[in-house]
Amino acid sequence: MTRTVMGPGERRRELLACAMRLFAEEGYDNVSVRAVARAAGVAPGLAYHYFDSKERMFAEAIGDYARRCAEGINAILDEEDLPLDERLERALKLGAAGGYSYAAFFHAEGNGTLHDRLSLAMCEAVRPHLRAALEADAASRGSSAPDADELAAIMTYGTVGLASGPGMPDGAATAAARRYLRALLAEFRSGGAAD
Question: Which residue from 145, 151, 173, 146 is spatially nearest to 161, judged by alpha carbons?
């Protein structure tokens, strides 16, 4: 086999993508760092250079996959020329549409804990983009956004929690998420209730 020379970042991304594919195809218990190295066509030592354990490799593969899944949502949230209401609606539609390459693996019976890890990683990938969008919305209205990070957390974790369970996409859960996002945004824009 001809060895392809890659930079460290590119090689790492290749190993993570290969690891995610193998974990999804064969299950967590049936994959080792050596198996990922073999599938990627590299020496096991190189794989261990990047990932000191299977758990570390899996955690980073989930993080990488979550970031890739969140790219479209984040791109929508970053569109400064759209009103925030429209960005939220588009992001919700995109997220609810699914189409994620390893959805079957994460939604399979017995993989609830793995699914939860992915959901949390997606929330962490989306949250800073939503916080920035909330801050920009407040600034455009001549207001400050001291609670933007907290609101971004509530909106992100709440929406992902509603919209990422088994059997998704679920129209009722998506509709509920839409209602709550609108209510939270309206409260945010009104300056919040007095403490």
Answer: 173
